[in-house]
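User: Here's a structure from my thesis project, written as C-alpha coordinates. My advisor, Dr. K., wants to see whether a designed sequence matches the one we expressed. Can you design one independently, without my sequence as a hint?
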Protein backbone atom coordinates (compact mmCIF):
# COMPACT_ATOMS: atom_id res chain seq x y z
CA UNK A 1 0.00 0.00 0.00
CA UNK A 2 0.96 3.65 -0.32
CA UNK A 3 0.07 6.22 2.33
CA UNK A 4 -1.66 9.41 1.19
CA UNK A 5 -0.96 12.30 3.54
CA UNK A 6 -2.38 15.72 4.30
CA UNK A 7 -0.30 18.88 4.38
CA UNK A 8 -0.47 18.86 8.19
CA UNK A 9 0.75 15.25 8.37
CA UNK A 10 3.57 15.92 5.91
CA UNK A 11 4.75 18.99 7.82
CA UNK A 12 4.77 16.96 11.04
CA UNK A 13 6.78 14.12 9.49
CA UNK A 14 9.18 16.65 8.02
CA UNK A 15 9.65 18.33 11.40
CA UNK A 16 10.17 15.02 13.25
CA UNK A 17 12.76 13.93 10.68
CA UNK A 18 14.69 17.18 11.03
CA UNK A 19 14.33 17.98 14.74
CA UNK A 20 14.20 14.54 16.37
CA UNK A 21 15.74 12.06 13.96
CA UNK A 22 18.41 14.59 13.05
CA UNK A 23 18.52 14.71 9.24
CA UNK A 24 19.19 18.37 8.31
CA UNK A 25 16.63 20.21 6.22
CA UNK A 26 19.17 20.97 3.51
CA UNK A 27 20.02 17.27 3.18
CA UNK A 28 16.34 16.43 2.62
CA UNK A 29 16.16 19.27 0.12
CA UNK A 30 19.16 17.97 -1.80
CA UNK A 31 17.65 14.50 -1.97
CA UNK A 32 14.32 15.90 -3.12
CA UNK A 33 15.92 17.91 -5.91
CA UNK A 34 18.11 14.98 -6.90
CA UNK A 35 15.03 12.78 -7.26
CA UNK A 36 13.55 15.21 -9.81
CA UNK A 37 16.92 15.43 -11.57
CA UNK A 38 16.99 11.62 -11.82
CA UNK A 39 13.55 11.55 -13.45
CA UNK A 40 14.70 14.08 -16.04
CA UNK A 41 17.90 12.13 -16.71
CA UNK A 42 15.92 8.89 -17.03
CA UNK A 43 13.97 10.44 -19.91
CA UNK A 44 17.23 10.35 -21.94
CA UNK A 45 16.43 13.47 -23.90
CA UNK A 46 18.39 13.50 -27.13
CA UNK A 47 19.52 16.26 -29.43
CA UNK A 48 21.05 19.64 -28.68
CA UNK A 49 21.38 21.14 -25.23
CA UNK A 50 17.84 21.53 -23.92
CA UNK A 51 16.40 24.77 -22.62
CA UNK A 52 14.91 24.47 -19.13
CA UNK A 53 12.71 26.98 -17.33
CA UNK A 54 12.11 26.64 -13.60
CA UNK A 55 9.47 28.78 -11.88
CA UNK A 56 10.27 29.18 -8.18
CA UNK A 57 8.43 30.73 -5.30
CA UNK A 58 10.19 31.93 -2.17
CA UNK A 59 9.31 29.01 0.08
CA UNK A 60 10.99 25.64 0.43
CA UNK A 61 9.32 24.32 -2.71
CA UNK A 62 11.07 27.13 -4.55
CA UNK A 63 14.29 26.24 -2.75
CA UNK A 64 13.95 22.72 -4.17
CA UNK A 65 13.69 24.35 -7.58
CA UNK A 66 16.86 26.37 -7.03
CA UNK A 67 18.78 23.24 -6.03
CA UNK A 68 17.43 21.45 -9.09
CA UNK A 69 18.57 24.34 -11.32
CA UNK A 70 22.10 23.91 -10.02
CA UNK A 71 22.06 20.17 -10.71
CA UNK A 72 20.76 20.65 -14.24
CA UNK A 73 23.16 23.47 -15.14
CA UNK A 74 25.94 21.19 -16.39
CA UNK A 75 23.84 19.53 -19.07
CA UNK A 76 21.06 22.02 -19.85
CA UNK A 77 20.53 25.70 -20.52
CA UNK A 78 18.74 26.62 -17.31
CA UNK A 79 16.74 29.73 -16.57
CA UNK A 80 15.03 30.47 -13.23
CA UNK A 81 12.14 32.90 -12.85
CA UNK A 82 11.54 34.03 -9.27
CA UNK A 83 8.03 34.83 -8.03
CA UNK A 84 7.23 36.52 -4.72
CA UNK A 85 9.13 38.66 -2.23
CA UNK A 86 12.72 37.44 -1.84
CA UNK A 87 13.09 39.37 1.40
CA UNK A 88 10.50 37.06 2.96
CA UNK A 89 12.07 33.89 1.60
CA UNK A 90 12.85 30.95 3.90
CA UNK A 91 16.38 30.48 5.21
CA UNK A 92 16.83 27.36 3.10
CA UNK A 93 15.78 29.33 0.03
CA UNK A 94 18.36 32.04 0.72
CA UNK A 95 21.10 29.44 1.17
CA UNK A 96 20.20 27.69 -2.08
CA UNK A 97 20.07 31.00 -3.91
CA UNK A 98 23.53 31.99 -2.71
CA UNK A 99 24.92 28.63 -3.84
CA UNK A 100 23.22 28.93 -7.24
CA UNK A 101 24.93 32.25 -7.94
CA UNK A 102 28.18 30.32 -8.55
CA UNK A 103 26.64 28.27 -11.37
CA UNK A 104 25.80 29.18 -14.99
CA UNK A 105 22.08 29.74 -14.37
CA UNK A 106 20.26 32.92 -15.31
CA UNK A 107 17.85 34.15 -12.59
CA UNK A 108 15.32 36.95 -12.89
CA UNK A 109 11.70 38.02 -12.65
CA UNK A 110 10.75 37.43 -16.29
CA UNK A 111 11.31 34.77 -18.92
CA UNK A 112 13.92 35.48 -21.60
CA UNK A 113 12.84 32.98 -24.25
CA UNK A 114 9.48 32.18 -25.79
CA UNK A 115 10.15 28.45 -26.14
CA UNK A 116 11.51 25.86 -23.71
CA UNK A 117 12.00 22.10 -23.91
CA UNK A 118 11.30 21.49 -20.22
CA UNK A 119 9.19 23.66 -17.90
CA UNK A 120 9.35 22.98 -14.16
CA UNK A 121 6.91 24.24 -11.54
CA UNK A 122 8.37 24.88 -8.07
CA UNK A 123 6.18 27.82 -7.01
CA UNK A 124 4.12 26.47 -4.11
CA UNK A 125 4.42 23.36 -1.98
CA UNK A 126 1.92 21.53 0.21
CA UNK A 127 1.08 24.59 2.27
CA UNK A 128 -1.05 26.50 -0.25
CA UNK A 129 -4.30 27.52 1.48
CA UNK A 130 -5.59 30.58 -0.40
CA UNK A 131 -6.63 31.40 -3.95
CA UNK A 132 -3.85 32.05 -6.45
CA UNK A 133 -3.83 35.59 -7.82
CA UNK A 134 -1.63 38.39 -9.13
CA UNK A 135 1.73 37.58 -10.72
CA UNK A 136 1.37 33.93 -9.67
CA UNK A 137 -1.87 33.53 -11.61
CA UNK A 138 -0.41 35.30 -14.64
CA UNK A 139 2.65 33.07 -14.69
CA UNK A 140 0.57 29.90 -14.20
CA UNK A 141 -1.60 30.89 -17.17
CA UNK A 142 1.53 31.45 -19.27
CA UNK A 143 2.98 28.12 -18.10
CA UNK A 144 -0.14 26.22 -19.15
CA UNK A 145 -0.14 27.77 -22.61
CA UNK A 146 3.56 27.15 -23.24
CA UNK A 147 4.81 24.10 -25.14
CA UNK A 148 7.22 21.56 -23.64
CA UNK A 149 7.54 18.71 -21.15
CA UNK A 150 6.07 19.97 -17.88
CA UNK A 151 7.06 18.78 -14.42
CA UNK A 152 5.75 19.73 -10.96
CA UNK A 153 7.93 19.57 -7.86
CA UNK A 154 5.97 17.70 -5.14
CA UNK A 155 2.55 19.25 -5.89
CA UNK A 156 1.35 21.19 -8.97
CA UNK A 157 1.05 24.81 -7.90
CA UNK A 158 -2.56 25.83 -7.40
CA UNK A 159 -3.76 22.35 -6.36
CA UNK A 160 -4.92 22.05 -2.75
CA UNK A 161 -2.74 19.23 -1.49
CA UNK A 162 -5.46 17.80 0.78
CA UNK A 163 -8.57 17.99 -1.40
CA UNK A 164 -7.38 18.29 -5.01
CA UNK A 165 -9.40 21.50 -5.36
CA UNK A 166 -8.22 24.13 -7.85
CA UNK A 167 -7.27 27.23 -5.87
CA UNK A 168 -8.31 29.77 -8.51
CA UNK A 169 -5.95 28.37 -11.13
CA UNK A 170 -3.30 25.64 -11.25
CA UNK A 171 -0.46 24.39 -13.42
CA UNK A 172 -1.19 21.33 -15.53
CA UNK A 173 1.81 19.02 -15.94
CA UNK A 174 2.88 15.75 -17.50
CA UNK A 175 4.78 14.52 -14.43
CA UNK A 176 4.63 15.24 -10.72
CA UNK A 177 7.60 14.09 -8.65
CA UNK A 178 6.18 13.74 -5.14
CA UNK A 179 8.43 13.49 -2.08
CA UNK A 180 8.25 10.85 0.69
CA UNK A 181 4.50 10.13 0.54
CA UNK A 182 1.67 10.76 -1.89
CA UNK A 183 -0.34 13.89 -1.22
CA UNK A 184 -4.09 13.30 -1.19
CA UNK A 185 -4.83 16.13 -3.61
CA UNK A 186 -2.82 14.42 -6.33
CA UNK A 187 -5.33 11.57 -6.41
CA UNK A 188 -8.65 13.32 -5.83
CA UNK A 189 -10.48 14.91 -8.74
CA UNK A 190 -9.82 17.38 -10.25
CA UNK A 191 -6.25 17.53 -8.90
CA UNK A 192 -5.31 14.18 -10.42
CA UNK A 193 -6.14 15.52 -13.88
CA UNK A 194 -3.58 18.29 -13.40
CA UNK A 195 -0.81 16.17 -11.86
CA UNK A 196 -0.18 13.85 -14.82
CA UNK A 197 1.89 10.80 -13.95
CA UNK A 198 2.73 10.80 -10.23
CA UNK A 199 6.05 9.36 -9.09
CA UNK A 200 6.68 9.10 -5.34
CA UNK A 201 10.34 9.30 -4.35
CA UNK A 202 12.08 8.38 -1.10
CA UNK A 203 14.04 11.39 0.19
CA UNK A 204 14.78 10.19 3.72
CA UNK A 205 11.45 10.86 5.45
CA UNK A 206 10.16 7.42 6.40
CA UNK A 207 7.76 5.61 8.68
CA UNK A 208 10.05 6.39 11.63
CA UNK A 209 8.58 9.89 11.54
CA UNK A 210 5.05 8.60 12.23
CA UNK A 211 5.85 8.18 15.95
CA UNK A 212 3.35 5.33 16.15
CA UNK A 213 0.50 7.21 14.46
CA UNK A 214 0.10 6.15 10.84
CA UNK A 215 -1.39 8.49 8.22
CA UNK A 216 -5.16 8.61 7.95
CA UNK A 217 -5.42 7.43 4.33
CA UNK A 218 -3.86 4.89 1.98
CA UNK A 219 -4.34 3.30 -1.43
CA UNK A 220 -3.57 -0.16 -2.74
CA UNK A 221 -0.91 -0.52 -5.45
CA UNK A 222 0.02 -4.22 -5.09
CA UNK A 223 -0.95 -7.06 -7.39
CA UNK A 224 -4.37 -8.18 -6.16
CA UNK A 225 -3.25 -11.81 -5.92
CA UNK A 226 -0.89 -10.83 -3.12
CA UNK A 227 -3.80 -9.53 -1.06
CA UNK A 228 -6.49 -12.18 -1.47
CA UNK A 229 -7.09 -14.95 1.09
CA UNK A 230 -5.05 -18.11 0.56
CA UNK A 231 -6.99 -21.00 -0.99
CA UNK A 232 -6.64 -24.19 1.06
CA UNK A 233 -5.59 -27.13 -1.09
CA UNK A 234 -7.80 -29.50 0.87
CA UNK A 235 -10.76 -27.11 1.04
CA UNK A 236 -14.29 -27.72 -0.20
CA UNK A 237 -17.30 -25.62 -1.17
CA UNK A 238 -18.18 -25.16 2.48
CA UNK A 239 -14.64 -24.12 3.33
CA UNK A 240 -14.82 -21.19 0.92
CA UNK A 241 -17.98 -19.82 2.36
CA UNK A 242 -21.71 -19.51 1.78
CA UNK A 243 -23.45 -16.31 0.72
CA UNK A 244 -27.18 -15.72 1.17
CA UNK A 245 -28.04 -12.99 -1.35
CA UNK A 246 -31.43 -11.24 -1.32
CA UNK A 247 -31.63 -9.62 -4.74
CA UNK A 248 -33.87 -9.08 -7.72
CA UNK A 249 -37.55 -8.50 -8.15
CA UNK A 250 -39.88 -8.69 -11.14
CA UNK A 251 -38.11 -7.20 -14.19
CA UNK A 252 -34.91 -6.77 -12.13
CA UNK A 253 -33.39 -10.25 -12.32
CA UNK A 254 -30.17 -8.91 -13.84
CA UNK A 255 -29.05 -7.37 -10.55
CA UNK A 256 -29.29 -10.75 -8.84
CA UNK A 257 -27.40 -12.40 -11.70
CA UNK A 258 -24.53 -9.90 -11.55
CA UNK A 259 -24.16 -10.11 -7.76
CA UNK A 260 -24.37 -13.91 -7.62
CA UNK A 261 -21.92 -14.39 -10.46
CA UNK A 262 -19.45 -11.98 -8.82
CA UNK A 263 -19.64 -13.89 -5.53
CA UNK A 264 -18.51 -17.00 -7.37
CA UNK A 265 -15.90 -15.20 -9.48
CA UNK A 266 -14.12 -13.95 -6.38
CA UNK A 267 -13.99 -17.40 -4.80
CA UNK A 268 -17.11 -18.02 -2.69
CA UNK A 269 -18.00 -21.72 -2.44
CA UNK A 270 -21.81 -21.51 -2.47
CA UNK A 271 -24.34 -18.78 -3.22
CA UNK A 272 -28.05 -18.98 -2.46
CA UNK A 273 -30.19 -16.29 -4.10
CA UNK A 274 -33.39 -15.22 -2.39
CA UNK A 275 -35.52 -13.86 -5.25
CA UNK A 276 -39.14 -14.04 -6.53
CA UNK A 277 -40.30 -17.16 -8.41
CA UNK A 278 -40.57 -15.17 -11.66
CA UNK A 279 -36.75 -14.97 -11.76
CA UNK A 280 -36.15 -18.72 -11.48
CA UNK A 281 -35.51 -19.50 -15.16
CA UNK A 282 -33.31 -16.43 -15.64
CA UNK A 283 -31.14 -17.25 -12.61
CA UNK A 284 -30.85 -20.93 -13.42
CA UNK A 285 -29.83 -20.09 -16.98
CA UNK A 286 -27.39 -17.26 -16.22
CA UNK A 287 -25.89 -18.64 -12.99
CA UNK A 288 -26.57 -22.40 -12.93
CA UNK A 289 -24.20 -22.81 -9.97
CA UNK A 290 -26.43 -20.73 -7.71
CA UNK A 291 -28.95 -22.21 -5.28
CA UNK A 292 -32.38 -20.60 -5.32
CA UNK A 293 -34.85 -19.68 -2.61
CA UNK A 294 -37.84 -18.28 -4.43
CA UNK A 295 -40.29 -17.94 -1.57
CA UNK A 296 -39.95 -16.65 1.93
CA UNK A 297 -43.47 -16.45 3.39
CA UNK A 298 -43.74 -14.19 6.40
CA UNK A 299 -45.51 -16.96 8.35
CA UNK A 300 -42.78 -19.57 7.91
CA UNK A 301 -40.35 -18.24 10.53
CA UNK A 302 -38.54 -21.56 10.91
CA UNK A 303 -37.73 -21.59 7.20
CA UNK A 304 -36.34 -18.09 7.53
CA UNK A 305 -34.09 -19.19 10.37
CA UNK A 306 -32.83 -22.17 8.38
CA UNK A 307 -31.82 -19.87 5.54
CA UNK A 308 -29.95 -17.63 7.95
CA UNK A 309 -28.27 -20.51 9.79
CA UNK A 310 -27.02 -21.92 6.48
CA UNK A 311 -25.08 -18.81 5.48
CA UNK A 312 -21.73 -17.29 6.47
CA UNK A 313 -22.60 -13.80 5.20
CA UNK A 314 -25.75 -11.99 4.14
CA UNK A 315 -26.02 -9.56 1.23
CA UNK A 316 -29.12 -7.59 0.36
CA UNK A 317 -30.28 -4.87 -1.98
CA UNK A 318 -29.42 -5.25 -5.69
CA UNK A 319 -32.67 -4.94 -7.63
CA UNK A 320 -34.64 -5.87 -4.50
CA UNK A 321 -37.31 -3.18 -4.65
CA UNK A 322 -38.68 -1.29 -1.67
CA UNK A 323 -42.10 -2.88 -1.25
CA UNK A 324 -43.44 -4.72 1.81
CA UNK A 325 -41.74 -7.99 0.79
CA UNK A 326 -38.36 -6.26 0.56
CA UNK A 327 -38.96 -4.56 3.92
CA UNK A 328 -39.74 -7.90 5.58
CA UNK A 329 -36.60 -9.55 4.19
CA UNK A 330 -34.36 -6.75 5.42
CA UNK A 331 -36.10 -6.71 8.79
CA UNK A 332 -35.62 -10.49 9.08
CA UNK A 333 -31.94 -10.24 8.12
CA UNK A 334 -31.44 -7.58 10.79
CA UNK A 335 -33.62 -9.04 13.53
CA UNK A 336 -32.99 -12.78 13.24
CA UNK A 337 -29.27 -12.92 12.50
CA UNK A 338 -25.91 -11.68 13.74
CA UNK A 339 -23.99 -12.62 10.58
CA UNK A 340 -21.85 -10.06 8.71
CA UNK A 341 -24.02 -8.22 6.22
CA UNK A 342 -23.51 -6.22 3.02
CA UNK A 343 -26.27 -3.70 2.28
CA UNK A 344 -26.53 -2.02 -1.12
CA UNK A 345 -28.97 -0.29 -3.47
CA UNK A 346 -32.60 -0.85 -2.39
CA UNK A 347 -31.40 -2.13 0.98
CA UNK A 348 -29.96 1.34 1.55
CA UNK A 349 -33.14 2.97 0.27
CA UNK A 350 -35.15 0.97 2.80
CA UNK A 351 -32.82 2.07 5.61
CA UNK A 352 -33.18 5.73 4.63
CA UNK A 353 -37.00 5.48 4.42
CA UNK A 354 -37.59 3.50 7.60
CA UNK A 355 -35.95 4.94 10.68
CA UNK A 356 -36.73 1.81 12.72
CA UNK A 357 -34.61 -0.31 10.36
CA UNK A 358 -31.71 2.12 10.54
CA UNK A 359 -31.96 2.24 14.33
CA UNK A 360 -32.03 -1.57 14.52
CA UNK A 361 -28.93 -1.72 12.38
CA UNK A 362 -27.22 0.96 14.48
CA UNK A 363 -27.95 -0.93 17.70
CA UNK A 364 -26.51 -4.13 16.30
CA UNK A 365 -23.50 -2.32 14.90
CA UNK A 366 -22.77 -0.78 18.28
CA UNK A 367 -23.11 -4.28 19.79
CA UNK A 368 -20.41 -5.58 17.46
CA UNK A 369 -22.23 -6.96 14.45
CA UNK A 370 -20.35 -6.23 11.22
CA UNK A 371 -22.01 -4.32 8.39
CA UNK A 372 -20.79 -2.97 5.06
CA UNK A 373 -22.90 -0.25 3.43
CA UNK A 374 -22.09 0.63 -0.18
CA UNK A 375 -23.89 3.90 -1.03
CA UNK A 376 -23.30 6.11 -4.04
CA UNK A 377 -23.47 9.85 -3.40
CA UNK A 378 -27.26 10.03 -3.76
CA UNK A 379 -27.84 7.12 -1.39
CA UNK A 380 -25.38 8.57 1.09
CA UNK A 381 -27.24 11.89 1.01
CA UNK A 382 -30.53 10.11 1.74
CA UNK A 383 -29.02 8.15 4.62
CA UNK A 384 -27.62 11.35 6.13
CA UNK A 385 -30.77 13.40 5.43
CA UNK A 386 -28.85 16.03 3.48
CA UNK A 387 -28.31 17.14 -0.11
CA UNK A 388 -26.12 15.59 -2.79
CA UNK A 389 -24.20 18.87 -3.19
CA UNK A 390 -23.33 18.92 0.51
CA UNK A 391 -22.17 15.32 0.37
CA UNK A 392 -20.02 16.01 -2.68
CA UNK A 393 -18.42 18.99 -0.92
CA UNK A 394 -17.55 16.88 2.14
CA UNK A 395 -17.54 13.25 1.04
CA UNK A 396 -14.75 12.19 3.39
CA UNK A 397 -16.17 13.92 6.45
CA UNK A 398 -19.72 12.70 5.75
CA UNK A 399 -18.57 9.11 5.24
CA UNK A 400 -16.44 9.08 8.38
CA UNK A 401 -19.28 10.56 10.42
CA UNK A 402 -21.79 7.93 9.26
CA UNK A 403 -19.29 5.10 9.79
CA UNK A 404 -18.80 6.27 13.35
CA UNK A 405 -22.52 6.79 14.01
CA UNK A 406 -23.46 3.30 12.78
CA UNK A 407 -20.18 1.56 13.76
CA UNK A 408 -19.96 0.00 10.31
CA UNK A 409 -17.91 0.10 7.12
CA UNK A 410 -19.04 2.75 4.64
CA UNK A 411 -18.04 2.35 0.99
CA UNK A 412 -18.75 5.76 -0.54
CA UNK A 413 -18.86 5.15 -4.28
CA UNK A 414 -17.66 8.04 -6.42
CA UNK A 415 -14.96 8.80 -9.00
CA UNK A 416 -12.62 8.21 -6.06
CA UNK A 417 -14.36 5.67 -3.84
CA UNK A 418 -13.57 5.95 -0.12
CA UNK A 419 -13.82 3.06 2.35
CA UNK A 420 -14.27 4.28 5.91
CA UNK A 421 -14.45 2.60 9.29
CA UNK A 422 -14.04 4.12 12.72
CA UNK A 423 -10.52 3.39 14.01
CA UNK A 424 -9.10 2.41 10.60
CA UNK A 425 -7.31 4.52 7.97
CA UNK A 426 -9.45 5.54 5.02
CA UNK A 427 -8.82 3.57 1.82
CA UNK A 428 -8.99 5.64 -1.35
CA UNK A 429 -9.42 3.65 -4.54
CA UNK A 430 -7.38 5.08 -7.42
CA UNK A 431 -8.02 2.41 -10.07
CA UNK A 432 -11.01 2.06 -12.35
CA UNK A 433 -12.43 4.37 -15.00
CA UNK A 434 -15.49 6.19 -16.30
CA UNK A 435 -16.66 3.12 -18.24
CA UNK A 436 -17.72 1.65 -14.89
CA UNK A 437 -20.38 4.33 -14.51
CA UNK A 438 -23.01 1.98 -15.88
CA UNK A 439 -26.08 0.20 -14.50
CA UNK A 440 -25.18 -2.96 -12.58
CA UNK A 441 -21.62 -1.98 -11.69
CA UNK A 442 -22.56 -1.63 -8.02
CA UNK A 443 -24.24 -5.04 -8.05
CA UNK A 444 -20.92 -6.58 -9.10
CA UNK A 445 -19.18 -4.81 -6.22
CA UNK A 446 -21.75 -6.15 -3.74
CA UNK A 447 -21.06 -9.70 -4.89
CA UNK A 448 -17.29 -9.26 -4.71
CA UNK A 449 -17.36 -7.93 -1.14
CA UNK A 450 -19.82 -10.60 0.05
CA UNK A 451 -17.74 -13.33 -1.60
CA UNK A 452 -14.59 -12.17 0.19
CA UNK A 453 -16.35 -12.02 3.56
CA UNK A 454 -17.65 -15.56 2.98
CA UNK A 455 -14.03 -16.71 2.76
CA UNK A 456 -13.22 -15.32 6.19
CA UNK A 457 -11.94 -11.85 5.29
CA UNK A 458 -13.05 -9.26 7.85
CA UNK A 459 -15.57 -6.72 6.62
CA UNK A 460 -13.22 -3.71 6.49
CA UNK A 461 -10.53 -5.53 4.54
CA UNK A 462 -13.12 -7.21 2.31
CA UNK A 463 -14.54 -3.80 1.45
CA UNK A 464 -11.14 -2.24 0.68
CA UNK A 465 -9.98 -5.24 -1.38
CA UNK A 466 -13.36 -5.53 -3.06
CA UNK A 467 -13.31 -1.95 -4.26
CA UNK A 468 -9.73 -2.37 -5.49
CA UNK A 469 -10.51 -5.61 -7.34
CA UNK A 470 -13.65 -4.05 -8.82
CA UNK A 471 -11.59 -1.13 -10.16
CA UNK A 472 -8.93 -3.41 -11.60
CA UNK A 473 -11.63 -5.42 -13.38
CA UNK A 474 -12.97 -2.18 -14.80
CA UNK A 475 -9.56 -1.30 -16.20
CA UNK A 476 -9.21 -4.73 -17.83
CA UNK A 477 -12.67 -4.41 -19.37
CA UNK A 478 -11.90 -0.90 -20.64
CA UNK A 479 -8.63 -2.05 -22.22
CA UNK A 480 -10.54 -4.70 -24.15
CA UNK A 481 -13.75 -2.94 -25.04
CA UNK A 482 -13.22 0.77 -24.49
CA UNK A 483 -14.96 2.93 -21.92
CA UNK A 484 -17.97 3.58 -24.12
CA UNK A 485 -18.95 -0.02 -24.77
CA UNK A 486 -18.23 -1.91 -21.53
CA UNK A 487 -21.08 -3.17 -19.34
CA UNK A 488 -21.48 -4.57 -15.85
CA UNK A 489 -21.57 -8.07 -17.38
CA UNK A 490 -18.06 -7.44 -18.67
CA UNK A 491 -16.94 -6.49 -15.15
CA UNK A 492 -18.34 -9.69 -13.68
CA UNK A 493 -16.71 -11.79 -16.38
CA UNK A 494 -13.19 -10.43 -15.91
CA UNK A 495 -13.13 -10.55 -12.09
CA UNK A 496 -11.74 -14.10 -12.14
CA UNK A 497 -9.08 -13.12 -14.66
CA UNK A 498 -7.93 -10.23 -12.49
CA UNK A 499 -7.57 -12.47 -9.45
CA UNK A 500 -5.56 -14.90 -11.56
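Assistant: Designed independently from the structure alone:
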Amino acid sequence: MEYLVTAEEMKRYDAVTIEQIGIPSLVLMERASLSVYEEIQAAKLSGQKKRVLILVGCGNNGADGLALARMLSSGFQVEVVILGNQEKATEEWKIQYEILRHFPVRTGRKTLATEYDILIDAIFGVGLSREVSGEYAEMIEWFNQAEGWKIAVDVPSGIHSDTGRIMGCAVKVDLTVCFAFGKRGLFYYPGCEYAGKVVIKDIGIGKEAFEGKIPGMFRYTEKIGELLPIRQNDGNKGTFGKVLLAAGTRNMAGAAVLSAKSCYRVGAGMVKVLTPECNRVILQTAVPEALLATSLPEAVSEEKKQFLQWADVLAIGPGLGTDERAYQILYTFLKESRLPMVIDADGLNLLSRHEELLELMREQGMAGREFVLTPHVGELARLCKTTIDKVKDSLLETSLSLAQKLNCVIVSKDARTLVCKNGEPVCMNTVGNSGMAVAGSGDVLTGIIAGLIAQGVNTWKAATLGVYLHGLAGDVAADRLGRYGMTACDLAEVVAEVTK
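When you compare it with your expressed construct, this may help: The chain has 18 helices and 19 strands.
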